[in-house]
């Protein structure tokens, strides 16, 4: 499973996160307000995943494995968090 809630309450994104995973991610974020999203093992993510992360303004742990996520999306999410904070 590419989106899972760890026993410690951290939401983990791993491997390839598909559009279907966006609903699971949203459910976890709603169930655990303020949860940290660890995406160090994420290789790629559908735009639906990115949209949920942008909307939720969750705290992100680590830098994703995938080059596109690392180079383009990660800086976008970080800048969006600092603007909204």
Structure report:
46% of the residues lie in helices and 27% in strands. With 85 residues, it is an alpha/beta fold. The chain has a four-stranded mixed β-sheet with strand order 1-2-3-4. The N and C termini lie far apart (31 Å).
Brief overview:
With 85 residues, this protein is α/β, with parallel strands linked by helices. 46% of the residues lie in helices and 27% in strands.
Layout of SSEs?
Layout: E1 3-5, E2 11-17, H1 21-31, E3 36-45, H2 47-56, E4 59-61, H3 67-84
Parallel strand pairs: 2-3, 3-4
Antiparallel strand pairs: 1-2
Helix pairs in contact: 1-2
What key phrases describe this protein's structure?
85 residues; alpha/beta; Transcription Regulator spoIIAA; 3 helices; 4 strands; 46% helix; globular
Q: What's the CATH C level?
A: Alpha Beta
Number of strands: 4
What would the average pLDDT be, to the nearest integer? 93
Please indicate the percent range of residues in DSSP E strands (runs of 2 or more).
Answer: 25-35%
Distance between the termini: 31 Å
Identify the strand order in the major beta sheet.
1-2-3-4
